[in-house]
Amino acid sequence: MKRLSASLLPVLLLTTAACKKAEAPPPTPAPTLAAPTTTLPAPVGVKSVTLGSAIGPDKRVTTTSDVFTPKETIYAVVESDGSGPAKLRALWTFVKGDKTAKVDETVIEFPSSGPAINEFHVTKPTGWPKGDYKVEIFLNDGAAPAMVKTFKVG
Q1: For 120, which of 79, 90, 108, 127 could close a Cys bridge (C-beta 3.0–4.6 Å)?
Q2: Which residues contact 134 (CB under 8 A, 6 or more apart)?
Q3: ∠103-100-50 over CA atoms, to 5°?
Q4: Predicted confidence band at 12 (pLDDT cuts at 50, 70, 90)?
Q5: Per-domain residue ranges for the chain?
Q6: Distances 33 to 12, 29, 37 between C-alpha atoms, Å
Q7: 118, 106, 122: which is closest to 68 by C-alpha?
Q8: Model pTM?
Q9: Considering only CA atoms, which of 60, 37, 43, 38 is closest in space to residue 113?
Q10: What angle do CA 47, 79, 143 make, to 5 degrees?
Q11: Measured between alpha carbons, how far is 80 from 58 in angstroms, rounded to an integer?
Q12: How confident is the model over 62-77, as pLDDT tens digits?
């Protein structure tokens, strides 16, 4: 029996060692890369156009209107937002039926670092002919206007 015990002892030790074998640790998760936190600024866009016959020191129209007297100066205040260099063009036209006549065209170039206010105006000391008019605001070199405002002189 001593022999049997002696011969079983190594088997028992191996079996016990095998049972106590530590489990392999779970694999470490792959590191995740953080998403970049920088966002590109929005490009310049036309937010609104307001018409009136006077502006304040902040370049905003003091009283909005879409009907003017023949001797008034007509202001178009353009509010823009976004960042980057921009060019605004105002094209003023007299509209009679399906025909239009160019009244004036002005271009303003500016470096925008956020919301901006720019003003365009037209005046005619001899007086505007009564009728329908419009001002088209173009952004950069766009073929289509970013915004159109119609008004009357009466």
Answers
A1: 90
A2: 92, 93, 95, 100, 148, 149, 150, 151
A3: 60
A4: very low
A5: 45-153
A6: 50, 12, 12
A7: 122
A8: 0.73
A9: 43
A10: 65
A11: 14
A12: 999 999 999 999 999 9
Give the strand pairing for 116-122 and 74-81.
antiparallel
CB 112 within 8 A of CB 44: yes
Q: What are phi and psi of 10, to 5 degrees?
A: -65, -35
- Per-residue tokens: 26: 């779970």
The one-letter amino acid at 134: K
Whether 137 and 89 have beta carbons less than 8 Å apart is answered as yes
